[in-house]
Structure formats: structure tokens, C-alpha cells
Amino acid sequence: MRKLIYDFGVSLDGYINDRDGNIDWTEPDDELHQFHNDRFRSLEISLHGRRMYELMAEYWPYVPDDASPIEREFGELWTRTPKVVFSRTLTEVHWNSTLVSENAVEEVRRLKSEGDGVMEVGGANLAASLIPHGLIDEYQLFVSPMVLGGGTPMFPALDKRLPLRLAETRHFETVVMLRYLAE
Description:
Elements: E1 3-11, E2 15-17, H1 30-41, E3 45-49, H2 50-59, H3 69-80, E4 83-86, E5 97-100, H4 104-113, E6 118-122, H5 124-130, E7 138-144, E8 152-153, E9 164-171, E10 176-182
Parallel strand pairs: 1-6, 1-7, 3-4, 3-6, 4-5
Antiparallel strand pairs: 2-8, 7-10, 9-10
Helix pairs in contact: 1-3
């Protein structure tokens, strides 16, 4: 069965963006960006909600020539990696993407059962729909030294506790990664 990872840059108080939707405080250093490139290279499928897909599609297929080699590499990785985009409002997607407009939970269950590699989920809203169903196997939090005081939380309100086991910590120049496994 495929493993599903939910990873996100998150503020110390648990938000993935500020009250205005800005993520400018999550700019990765080169070491962190290379870590993400290496992780992304290992993915079989990247799952995106509409907002995350639109954010990524706005920049990564069009990385400027004067961007760093690490950024250009990520643009190539993102463009060629198979993506499943979950949206009820989009009518088309590009860059090796498939659009799914109904029942994300069942589609993710199907995708997990059809392989033994690794998938990631990008987007807090999509992840929030999957977490209560126990579909996420691993959580990677890239905690920035920033308190936002509001915004979009990384985790939804849940009806019951979500037990996790700390599997790894790693210090980068700009963040600390906390990697947890679902129990």
C-alpha cells in the first residue's frame, strides 16, 4: 500500500499561512530547498487541493532562467511528477495532472491501494478531509520561528485525538523538521 505524507511549513503556533493568506515567512534556505527536491523526487504521486495547485502552477512551470539551480530543479520535478488535483470548480489541469471532482476520500483510498510507493498531500483543506479517515501515514512539519496569531491551521478540528509517534527531528538553518508517524 502506498504511504501518504502530509508535509507543510508551519508557524510555531500551528498556521500554514497568515491571516491574509501570505506564506512569505516560509522561504526555504538552500539546504531545506534541496531536502524538498530530494523528497519530491521520490514521490509517485502528488495530491493537490485547488488552491495549492493554483499556487504551484502559477510559478513552478515558469521558473525564470535566473533562478537558482535548486529552484529550476524543483520546477522540473513539479512539472513532471504525476499530480491528482481535487477540485469541484476547476475544469482543466495541466503539467501531468489529473482532475478529480468527487469524493476525495474514496479516490485517495483507491490510489493508496494501487501501489507501494510514496504520495504526498499538498493543501491544508485537502489534508483536513483525509485526516479524520486515517488516510495520512506520516506528518512532516517544518516549524518556522514565527508566531502568526491566526491564519489557516495545519490541522483541522477533530472529534478525537490523533496519536502520533515522533520518528525524526532535523534542524535546518531556518526551520526545524518534526516527522511523525500515525499510530
